Amino acid sequence: MWKSDILRASFGRISERAPAGGRRCGSSARDFFSSKTAVGCAVVNAKKSYHVAIVGATGAVGEELLRVLERRAFPVGRLLPLSSERSAGRSVSFRGEEIAAQQLSSSSFKGIDLAFFSAGGNISREYGPVAREAGAIVIDNSSVFRMEPDVPLVIPEINGDDVRQHRGLIANPNCTTAVALMALYPLHRAFGVRRVIASSYQAVSGSGARAIHELRSQVQAAAENQPPVAGIYPHPIAFNLLPHVDSFLPSGYTKEEMKMQNEGRRIMHLPDFRASVTCVRVPVYRAHSVAISAEFERTVSVEQAHEVLAKAPGLELVDEPQNNRYPMPLFTAGKDNCEVGRVRRDCAFENGLSFWVSGDQLLKGAALNAVQIAELL
User: Fold this and answer.
1) DSSP sequence for 27-42
2) 2 is a domain residue
């Protein structure tokens, strides 16, 4: 049974029940951070409803957005699913109804209050400003606006207050960055992070549904003693690891590898934060994992780190190696919360810790975080 569940999660079919009850947003990110169970804030004006557009509604993140909006009871008055010409007319499910996606155009955003974008950078670059000019608040999942100084880059558990500075457009962070910072930031607050060395283990669903199908077909080809055919990636991904996520820069790093440092600086308000990252694509359907070695300004013990991490919102401490309990993408797929474990003193840094974090990149790394941002508005 678990096998079919994981496959459904890989295609975005598993969702967790929203936490019972709700809570109003605190007056600051510190108030938000004080709650262990909260993974978001209830909308302050619960009676108001919003006209919501989802650009890329038929894609993997778009489908997750629909599910997250529904199970968190976000007050959607009218839903407008938008897609490319190729996917226009395809139905999406929301609150028990089938709604046909409409083709995206420059006139799509009339009367829209809130527009989620999850259709790639080119679409966001072209239509994000159009939606904003039409009066919608844009929450964008692409990388296009993340480093713009007047666009807040937000993880609600970390810098939710930054939402107040928006000028009609808010950026969602990179999925791997979001998963990593869910564990790193609470430790930074307690001990002051100086720098990190990290390696990511990124699931194929981060490249879209076609990459999932490619992994499945390559596994099947291997079972039939046939050569695997690579299409999405430059090499076969089944039974392989690719130290190549995004395009290479002159420095030898990839764009993906620089995002943790560059985005981490903005999200944590830490301009001197340094991160050396190696990003690896792995033959896992869903959920990213990151191995992190971090150096801190103050001395930190494993016991102190456990105490901090156990209280962090949106994070579960799973650290019983003697009982073979540690975070694994097999079990974080489909979960709202990220998991952290394998916490130990680092052998290379004097005030260092090494730890392992895993989280669903389609949820906390994309759809869930976007809806949490909307709940702060």
Assistant:
1) SSHHHHHT-SS-SS-B
2) no
Lowest-pLDDT range, 17-31, 103-117, 227-241? Answer: 17-31
pTM value is: 0.86
CA dist 7 to 4, 16, 58, 353, Å?
5, 15, 18, 34
For residue 209, give its domain range.
Answer: 178-361
| Alpha-carbon separation of residue 102 from 42, 79, 107, 128 (angstroms) | 29, 11, 11, 17
Query: What is the overall mean pLDDT for the chain?
Result: 90
* Residues near 94 by beta carbon (within 8 Å), at least 6 away in sequence: 66, 69, 70, 76, 79, 81
Cα 89 to Cα 230: distance, rounded to the nearest angstrom: 30
Q: Which CATH number do you get for residue 59?
A: 3.40.50.720
Percent share of the chain, pLDDT over 70 = 88
Residue 287: exposure state from Cβ atoms within 10 A (0-12, 13-18, ≥19): buried
Q: Report the C-alpha dihedral over residues 182, 184, 188, 194, rounded to 10 degrees.
A: -150
Q: Write the CA distances from 231 to 120, 241, 254, integer angstroms.
A: 19, 15, 20
Is residue 204 within 8 Å of residue 218, measured between CB atoms?
A: no
Residue 288 tokens read as 């990213």
Residues recognised as catalytic: 175, 288
Q: Which residue has the higher pLDDT, 34 or 113?
A: 113
**What mean pLDDT do residues 47-60 have?**
91
Is residue 30 domain-resident? yes
Distance, CA of 305 to CA of 32 (rounded, Å)? 20
The answer to whether residues 173 and 265 touch, using CB atoms and an 8 Å cutoff, is no
- Both 200 and 165 in a single domain? no
The letter for the amino acid at 42 is: A
CB contact set of 113 (below 8 Å; sequence gap of 6+): 50, 51, 52, 135, 136, 137
